Amino acid sequence: MFFPPLNPNSKHKMGVGSKIVFDSSASFIAKGAAFTSIDSRLKWEGIFLSNTEVDTIVNCTFSNAKTALTITNTAKNYYKSRVIKNNTFNIPNGGVHKGIYGENNYKILLQDNVFNMPVYNPQGQSPVQLEYIGVYKSCGYVRCLNFKMNDVSFLK
Q1: pLDDT digits (tens, 9 = 90+) for 111-132
Q2: Is residue 1 one of the residues assigned to a domain?
Q3: Is there a domain that residue 4 lies in?
Q4: Residue 3 lies in a domain
Q5: Which are the contacts of 11, defined by CB distance < 8 A and separation ≥ 6?
Q6: Whole-structure pTM value
Q7: Which one of 21, 66, 103, 142 has the fewest CB atoms closer than 10 angstroms to its CB?
């Protein structure tokens, strides 16, 4: 299924608890879009990509989402290609929130993204572990993420 790309520089304001869902062979293409909640004090669920085709998310901004991007696949779809580049993830305070969560992704490029997030490093480890910078993964293999040149800013 083909879903037309979002208009460049479009703004999408989401209500509390709302989400965008792409499922079963759809493709999500967003370039320069901004996603946030209607009320900055409330959180929306995020964007869910489940068994989608080739997804491209470039130069977008995500704010006030519990999990900005959730990308999950079954065994037959885990080699689909995804590109997530040059985005800004403004991860909110007040809970365990994520920039990106993925399961069964073996071909995903995360490059030049910025993760602005509250300080959360319960183990006090240095460097801060990947799961504490807004990227959560469950894939079974280290090679599932191509993680290059991303920047993490801890908010005070």
Answers
A1: 888 888 776 555 655 444 455 4
A2: no
A3: no
A4: no
A5: 33, 34, 36
A6: 0.78
A7: 142
Round to whole Å and give the CA distance between 139 and 105. Answer: 6
In one-letter notation, the amino acid at residue 70 is T
The C-alpha atoms of residue 78 and residue 80 are separated, in whole angstroms, by: 6
Q: Among 101, 119, 109, 98, which residue's Cα sits nearest to residue 49?
A: 101
Handedness of CA 43, 28, 114, 35 (dihedral sign): negative
Query: Quick one: pLDDT at residue 93?
Result: 81
Range of the domain at 127: 11-155
Q: Does the pLDDT at position 150 exceed 80?
A: no
d(CA 85, CA 121): 25
Tally of structural domains, the chain: 1
* Helix (H), strand (E) at residue 100: strand 98-103
